[in-house]
Amino acid sequence: MQNNYVESQKIVNIRTNSYKIENLSPGQTYHIKLKKNTIYGESIPIPNINVTTDDTIDFSIEVAGVTVKQTESQVNIEWFQSPVYKTYYIKYKLIRRLSCIKDRIESPIQVVITTNTKYTLLYLEPNAQYQLFVTADKNQNMKAHNFTFITSSKVPTIAPSLLT
């Protein structure tokens, strides 16, 4: 913050008399002050204006920076914090059991609700393929571009016994 301004932008646009400011937070009031600088110097100040954005949140915008890292026993998910979204939904589902059958299976979507920007999935089925995505939309179903991962196989904890 400098001179009570959160941000200032130098706009170079000589073709039109408009400029679109994107990625503003919903329900916030912004004080806009314009100055025109030309090769002849600074112009007479243009009247300031206060603009309040609509408080409707667009949940269709994807959560940015999602990464999925696997270890032998868990899946760690992280993403960038959004200035707009406060609640995130991690949605995942089992799509294949690799030890039994290679065909896709229809399993229900599991949903984890969190306000954090990282989460660890535990107790997933071993040797299985999952789809996963992170969203701010509680009603969104699986989408075309999901993360797909395969869980590790488990090593037996007891020795096999021979049947005679």
UniProtKB/TrEMBL annotation:
<dbReference type="InterPro" id="IPR036116">
    <property type="entry name" value="FN3_sf"/>
</dbReference>
<dbReference type="InterPro" id="IPR013783">
    <property type="entry name" value="Ig-like_fold"/>
</dbReference>
<feature type="domain" description="Fibronectin type-III">
    <location>
        <begin position="1"/>
        <end position="56"/>
    </location>
</feature>
<protein>
    <submittedName>
        <fullName>Uncharacterized protein LOC108254305</fullName>
    </submittedName>
</protein>
<dbReference type="InterPro" id="IPR003961">
    <property type="entry name" value="FN3_dom"/>
</dbReference>
